[in-house]
Amino acid sequence: MSSSETLPAATDQALDYDAIVVGAGMSGMYQLIRLRQLGLRGRVFEAGTDVGGTWYWNRYPGARFDSESYSYGFSFDPELLQEWSWSEHFAPQPETLRYLNHVAEKYDLRRDIQFNSRVASAHYADDWRGWTVTLEDGSRYRARYLITAIGVLSAPTLPRIAGIESFRGQSWHTARWPKEKVDFTGQRVAVIGTGATGVQTIQEVAKTAAHLTIFQRTPNWCAPLHNRPITEDEQQRIKASYPEIFRRCQETFSCFLHTPDPRGTFEVTPEEREAFYEELYASPGFGIWVGNFRDMLTDPAANREISDFVARKIRQRVKDPRLAEMLIPKNHGFGTRRLPLETRYYEVYNQDNVTLVDSRATPIERITPTGIKTSEAEFEFDIIIYATGFDALTGAFDRIDIRGTDGQRLKETWSGGAQTFMGMLVEGFPNMLMLLGPHTALGNIPRSIEYNVEWVSDLLRHMQEHGLTRVEARPEAVQAWTDHVKSCAAGLLTFEVDSWMTGVNRNVEGKQTRTIARYAGSAPAYRAWCDAVAAKGYQELMLR
């Protein structure tokens, strides 16, 4: 027994709250609801001025769902499901934010959320068995539990280009977009980046900008979204079908309405294969990515078939053969990186007011007071948009000074790659519970959020019922889960590619090497593992 174990637990009077939640996005909002149901005093600290998380910060033009709206919202309250009507099959950001505001009002969440409150540090103290959370303004709060609800894509990164601060025009990262409407009419606009955010931004800005110049370092495979309004008849059918919709999400590999086809690519004739690809390409949503042949992401030859198909589609849609080739990825196969869904994105490059610059062939040397200088030319702009993504999965954790027992820093603990237990606990960081930590199941994120919040809440209930105040993952459990995560990644083409899903970000120091930062198994398998831990009385955890 360590000396710290002999010290008495803190009394409730020593705590400001039972639990502090970091972040008021979907996971923080739902966790607050569950904490109240447990009778625990919870406080949510949120850096923004209101609820919404991803949908609060990402206000850029074109931002919207790429999973079906009715599969995305909260499922825990039948009344909420019936009173909210989605207007489109893939809702735009303003509508999603209205939905989350509605949730906050319906459950009176704001009274326990402190806005404009960015967490700077969270330190665990074993002498009183709790966490001290310090905000950027210096104020401190103590709680027994620290629950992180900070998301997997919430730490935006700017490119490492000299002169960014010198630009005299307007400039924003897409995840720090102004609340006021931006008018691109008559403006010379630059967009740096062609990932999922860049694709959505580009196809909107191109409609009104006097001229749009796109700086592309790595082209991405994209597929049509096929969005449309939801008719009144469809609305009624959706609301009557919610039990089946969410049951389907529970059954599929990644909680979308789509799941891999059981056939192999070469188990059908070339004609059948082409017809299947055409059907997927003409269908809405992620079906072409997560509903394709079962071997698309494991067999290089199978992946080459779908890559060639989509390349042909790009050549058909882009009139200039030179531009079409610039837009076809050469360093990764279809679906091996996060797939952007688009609406007439490729047709943008047929417009006279759009220019595409290959940032590999002619790198950006610096941002100037009037625009951008590459190795070949100098451009003048009124607006620069940085669609340069996020320090994903662990980045939001790295930006908070999180220290566990004996002052160990989480960032240092994870310096060689994240190690967790089920993506929710970390050895050496007692009473820290992560709702979307690295190595948790992703996919259709709200489905993962609801499950993880409920698992954490059940653990807290178990601790209440048994007079327990401290929980930590056993080292052997962490090792077993980490080994399992690595085994799930074996043989997947995704992990042979540099992307945020493999922990690579060229704009972040120390993140140029691939790691197993993401759980690649199925959501049902993930839940089965977590359910088994709870059913056996949490034997993998040290509870006292």
List the helices and strands and how they pair.
Layout: E1 17-22, H1 26-37, E2 42-45, H2 54-57, H3 69-72, H4 78-83, H5 93-106, E3 113-114, E4 119-125, E5 130-135, E6 140-148, E7 170-173, E8 188-192, H6 196-205, E9 211-216, E10 223-224, H7 232-240, H8 242-251, H9 270-281, H10 287-290, H11 300-317, H12 321-327, E11 341-342, E12 354-358, E13 364-368, E14 371-374, E15 378-380, E16 383-386, H13 395-398, E17 401-403, H14 410-413, E18 432-434, H15 445-465, E19 471-473, H16 475-489, H17 523-535, E20 541-543
Parallel strand pairs: 1-2, 1-6, 2-3, 4-17, 6-18, 7-16, 8-9, 8-16, 9-12, 10-11
Antiparallel strand pairs: 4-5, 5-6, 13-14, 14-15, 19-20
Helix pairs in contact: 1-15, 15-17
Model regions low in confidence, pLDDT < 50 over at least 5 residues = 1-12
Question: How many angstroms does the end-to-end distance come to?
Answer: 12 Å
Mean pLDDT: 95
- Percent of sequence in beta strands: 15-25%
Task: Kindly name the structural category.
Answer: alpha/beta
Describe the structure.
The longest helix has 21 residues, at 445-465. The protein is an alpha/beta fold and 544 residues long. The chain has helices at 26-37, 54-57, 69-72, 78-83, 93-106, 196-205, 232-240, 242-251, 270-281, 287-290, 300-317, 321-327, 395-398, 410-413, 445-465, 475-489, 523-535, and strands at residues 17-22, 42-45, 113-114, 119-125, 130-135, 140-148, 170-173, 188-192, 211-216, 223-224, 341-342, 354-358, 364-368, 371-374, 378-380, 383-386, 401-403, 432-434, 471-473, 541-543. Mean pLDDT is 95; it is low at 1-12. Helix 1 (26-37) packs parallel to helix 15 (445-465) and helix 15 packs parallel to helix 17 (523-535). The N and C termini lie close together (12 Å). The radius of gyration is 24 Å and the shape is globular. Pfam families: Pyr_redox_3. Keywords: FAD, Flavoprotein, NADP, Oxidoreductase. It comes from Belnapia mucosa. InterPro entries: FAD-binding_Monooxygenases, FAD/NAD-bd_sf.
